[in-house]
Amino acid sequence: MRSHAATDPKSADDTRKGSRVGRPPRVSTQAIIAAAIEIGLEGVTLKRVADRLGVAVPTLYKHIRSRDELVRMAAFELTLKRRAPEREDLHWSEIATGYALSLYESFVAEPQLVHELMKGTMGPDIELDFLERFLDAMTRQGFSLDEGMQLHHAVAMLAIGASVAAISVISARALGAPMDQALREAAAQREAETLKHTRSVLDTYVNAESRDWLDSLRLMLEGIAARRGETLPSSLRPLSSPLPGHSPKS
């Protein structure tokens, strides 16, 4: 005997509609980035990401503008995760330095990220995850959440500023107009009696290396350590992070 449900048009219609009942899958920028990383950045497409998340491609455009933007953000996320220090035996200053280097090297490697940051289009998800990992590491080192947040701000501002300066130097060199040469030529064109202070330090100024920002970072960390009644570990001396094509100071 055939069941009543099989012959009831209303029941059959309800059964067909059942697959559409319920909330649509929730999608976030971070979920999209995670899916792209799982697929692999070389072969990732928006269609493959959408299929993995169970949504339509137009849904992705509510969170990202293009495949290129997605790849940049995913690459940034990968770099931060790979380079952020995770060893339990590290001193808090070594952890902070590792996070600073991960930010610096990520931005220098992908200058477009600086433009995204300046335009406010990078999105909050990566920043939130980075901050959470940093605060987790610092609280395990005896920092309060407020202290950890202040240290995060200081480290991030210094590292991002240094990366912008490094990108400027690299770009000028790539255009065949090294910044040190441009500064010397500009100074030479000024009246001899002008820039008397700047001329005195010009050689040092134009020969500044990319590692110099780490000296500033170390000075900041020394001050924080002093307030905590500590000294920095010898592993932070000396610091170096040369630009591509540059060698660290001896």
Automatic annotation (TrEMBL):
InterPro entries: Homeodomain-like_sf, HTH_TetR, Repressor_TetR_C, Tet_transcr_reg_TetR-rel_C_sf. Gene3D superfamilies: Homeodomain-like, Tetracycline Repressor, domain 2. GO terms for biological process: negative regulation of DNA-templated transcription. GO terms for molecular function: DNA binding. Residues 34-72 form the HTH tetR-type domain. The keyword Cell division does not apply. Keywords: DNA-binding, Transcription, Transcription regulation. Residues 1-17 have a biased composition (Basic and acidic residues). Coiled coil: none annotated. Pfam families: TetR_C_1, TetR_N. Residues 1-25 are annotated as: Disordered. Residues 85-227 form the Tetracycline repressor TetR C-terminal domain. This is Cytochrome P450.
